[in-house]
């Protein structure tokens, strides 16, 4: 019997080792992508909603390229789509659906400032149209730019250089004054993501070269930001010119990886409140080599985020996650340890097999690297998310994956992602959300949209590609005026909390609000009903106890509120 148990344990261990491996094949020759340019920015993206990804490559000194799949190879169709012949030292790319036709448009910026930015309106299958001036986005003070949604009451916004701008219905208008971002400068890599669990987008800015420290701004939810750059265990972030984010330890908050140019890259762990701790040594991710691109993705489909780093003076690096945020360098055995003057990078499913591939752009007229993932398992789920109103690409939507126990309503949180227009310096990752599913056999998905509504689905199986759409129950005005009448909005104060937290609710359509509170394992710890004081705001106070009156442990909790068909949710942090 002891021998049988030993053999069983060895089999389980072997399965885990195999699952934790990944190999890539550099395939630029096989895919007919051999052009040697001064490549900088890159985006893996489906330009025409045909469920096949194209590749947009920004060129610093020559014509940009748009690679379109034709059979088993790609052809450069940049000339046909009207993006060739534009040469102004461009470096950066970010995406959004500016004209609200459900197709991604492309905004590129570069080192030659002033009237130099370009906005390509996507008319696929017809050629794109350059309309930066028409949308008031042609002038930029610095290279960095990223689209996002500022709050449920705001439509599509963009930070372009040192200007915060909001879509007004026909073009973008400057709303920087009074926003809390009046004094930002050296905006090289702005990245928007939720740092504190309130489902709105906060801001991290990495500066060029080693001139400035990383800057962190909390979104106050009212159209303004507060500088909290000192919210670290070291009193601030180090130097850095590139930043990317992801939940490296699956604890329901987003962590930061900061590339420091010629210095050492650093990993910063979020405690759920927007306070970050430098864990570079513990995570084993402190490499140098002049990193200009980095991206998180679950390359081995085991359920946690791995990390690719595109370096310029040393070979590329791939780190595999052990599920706790501790990484192992597998660059050599995975096949990515190749030298090139690295610039931007992008991750996405290039060959439509459900696995995450990598494009590493190389500048200085060197060959770009196309790393195709050789996994053949079905341990993944891919979610294509459709938004509404001025945010049809669902930018800022937070997608959560749960393991669903067969025959019960028990759900265990597994991982989360956020859809980003600009998740890394010089790059945009595929907008469709990818999760590795590990050993899970049945799954559930929940999406928190920037409009304040949620969408959920259950009984999702590994190997699936699903489409989820934002519920059409929210009326959003394009300008920050009065509260829309068809929106359920919840706010929590204080959050984090120690003894009690008060939830304010407005916009419900039924007589009562149904309140449910879950822990990170998906277990319901508290439920209640409160009267909807139409048209006033209703309040619910939670004292940190479960339905039996027992105190719950410190940690992250998810509160959901429903009234009729309208629903919303918040993440709460209890610190005892």
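Q: What amino acid sequence fits the structure above?
A:
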């Amino acid at each position: 019997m002891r021998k049988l148990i030993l053999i069983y344990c060895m089999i389980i261990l072997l399965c885990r080792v195999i699952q934790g491996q990944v190999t890539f094949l550099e395939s630029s020759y096989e895919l007919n992508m051999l052009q040697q340019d001064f490549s900088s920015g890159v985006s893996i993206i489906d330009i025409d909603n045909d469920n096949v990804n194209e590749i947009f490559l920004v060129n610093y000194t020559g014509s940009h390229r748009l690679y379109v799949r034709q059979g088993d190879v790609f052809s450069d169709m940049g000339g046909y789509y009207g993006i060739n012949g534009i040469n102004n030292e461009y470096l950066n790319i970010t995406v959004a659906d500016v004209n609200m036709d459900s197709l991604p448009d492309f905004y590129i910026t570069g080192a030659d400032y002033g009237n130099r930015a370009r906005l390509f309106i996507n008319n696929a299958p017809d050629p794109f149209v350059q309309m930066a001036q028409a949308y008031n986005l042609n002038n930029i003070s610095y290279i960095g730019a990223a689209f996002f949604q500022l709050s449920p009451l705001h439509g599509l916004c963009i930070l372009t250089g040192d200007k915060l701008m909001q879509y007004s219905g026909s073009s973008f208008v400057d709303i920087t004054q009074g926003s809390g971002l009046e004094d930002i400068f050296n905006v090289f890599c702005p990245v928007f993501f939720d740092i504190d669990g309130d489902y709105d987008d906060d801001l991290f800015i990495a500066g060029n070269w080693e001139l400035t420290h990383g800057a962190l701004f909390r979104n106050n939810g009212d159209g303004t930001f507060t500088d909290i750059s000192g919210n670290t265990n070291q009193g601030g972030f180090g130097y850095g010119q590139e930043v990317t984010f992801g939940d490296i330890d699956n604890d329901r908050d987003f962590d930061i990886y900061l590339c420091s140019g010629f210095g050492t890259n650093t990993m910063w762990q979020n405690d759920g409140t927007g306070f970050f701790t430098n864990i570079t040594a513990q995570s084993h991710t402190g490499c140098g080599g002049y990193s200009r691109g980095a991206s998180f993705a679950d390359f081995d489909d085991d359920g946690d985020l791995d990390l690719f780093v595109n370096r310029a003076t040393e070979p590329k690096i791939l780190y595999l996650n052990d599920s706790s945020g501790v990484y192992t360098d597998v660059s050599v055995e995975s096949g990515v340890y190749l030298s090139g003057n690295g610039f931007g990078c992008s991750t996405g499913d290039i060959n439509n097999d459900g696995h995450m591939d990598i494009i590493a752009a190389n500048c200085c007229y060197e060959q770009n690297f196309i790393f195709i993932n050789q996994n053949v398992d079905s341990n993944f789920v891919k979610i294509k998310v459709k938004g509404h109103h001025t945010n049809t690409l669902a930018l800022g939507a937070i997608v959560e994956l749960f393991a669903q126990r067969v025959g019960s309503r028990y759900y265990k949180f597994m991982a989360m992602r956020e859809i980003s227009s600009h998740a890394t310096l010089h790059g945009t990752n595929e907008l469709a959300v990818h999760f590795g599913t590990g050993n899970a056999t049945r799954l559930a998905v929940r999406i928190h949209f920037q409009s304040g509504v949620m969408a959920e689905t259950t009984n999702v199986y590994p190997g699936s590609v699903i489409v989820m759409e934002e519920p059409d129950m929210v009326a959003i005005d394009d300008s920050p005026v009065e509260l829309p009448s068809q929106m359920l909005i919840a706010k929590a104060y204080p959050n984090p909390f120690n003894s009690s937290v008060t939830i304010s609710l407005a916009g419900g359509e039924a007589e009562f609000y149904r309140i449910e509170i879950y822990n990170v394992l998906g277990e319901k710890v508290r439920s209640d009903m409160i009267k909807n004081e139409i048209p006033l705001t209703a309040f619910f106070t939670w004292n940190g106890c479960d339905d039996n009156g027992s105190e719950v442990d410190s940690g992250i909790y998810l509160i959901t509120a429903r009234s009729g068909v309208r629903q919303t949710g918040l993440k709460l942090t209890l610190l005892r």
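Q: And what stands out in the fold?
A: The longest helix spans residues 2-19.
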